[in-house]
Amino acid sequence: SQKARADFPFWFWFGVVVTLLCWIVMWGQFSWLGKIVRFTFVPMAWGVILSVDGWVYQRTGGHSLLAKRPRTVAAIAIASVPGWYIFQYLNYFLLKNWYYPADPNLLSPFGYHLWHQIGNTTVITGVLEWYCLLGTFDRLKHRYMHGPKIDLTKFGAFFLIVGVLDAVLLGIWPISLFWSVWLGPAFVLGGALLMS
Q1: Residues ≥6 apart with Cβ < 8 Å to 1
Q2: What local confidence, expressed as pLDDT, does residue 105 receive?
């Protein structure tokens, strides 16, 4: 059966333009733009989010998070900020696996802090939008629908312990275990959810 399609919404096109402009500025490193290059990630990330949501809208006949549940998108963006702080905390033990350059002549410390929080709004929001987009492709959506079922409920405590242990060991061996910064929180959250 043929799925209903819709025209791309205005926010799709706006997102595409913003993404392309920011991408060109980031890669071009044009000296005449000065330090504005440092501030292109956030609008580019939101441009991608708008574009992906617009693509979902087009593929589903007008159903997307922004079209049907804009408050949910705002709530997810806000929840993304403290969620990202978990990784910021773990990064402290990783000898600055990533960092945020600052120029006191450009923004105040509070200004940089606020800008980084706005940037953090893109993390979970972007992941969720991509999840929604991938769900519009039948081959991806249904490929493993009837595959093997694995019951992980009895492993909740194990996952929780592995996640907490990972966080502790990161503080002891930050260089050797830097790659596991992404796994520990997932194990803690997954373990807690399986135990609830």
Answers
A1: none
A2: 76
Q: How many residues does the chain have?
A: 196
**For tokens 């292109």, what's the residue?**
40
Question: Would you say residue 2 has pLDDT above 70?
Answer: no
Model confidence at 1: pLDDT above 60: no
Query: What single DSSP character describes residue 149?
Result: -
pLDDT score, position 145: 74
- For 16-74, the pLDDT digits (tens) are 999 999 999 988 888 888 888 888 889 999 999 999 999 999 999 999 999 999 999 99
Write b or e for each residue in 10-43: b if 16 or more Cβ atoms lie within 10 A of its Cβ, otherwise e: ebbeebbebbeebeebeeeeeeeeeeebbebebb
> Could you read off the pLDDT of 73-85 as tens digits, one per residue?
999 999 999 888 8
Q: Compute how many other C-beta atoms are within 10 angstroms of the C-beta atom of residue 185.
A: 17
Q: Cα–Cα–Cα angle for 58, 134, 14, nearest 5°?
A: 40
pLDDT bracket for residue 95 (50, 70, 90): low
Distance CA 35, CA 105 (A): 10
One-letter amino acid of 73: V
* Amino acid at residue number 1: S
Residue 117 · residue 81 · CB < 8 Å: yes
The DSSP-derived string for 70-120 is HHHHHHHHHHHHHHHHHHHHHHHHTT-SS-----TTTS-HHHHHHHHHHHH
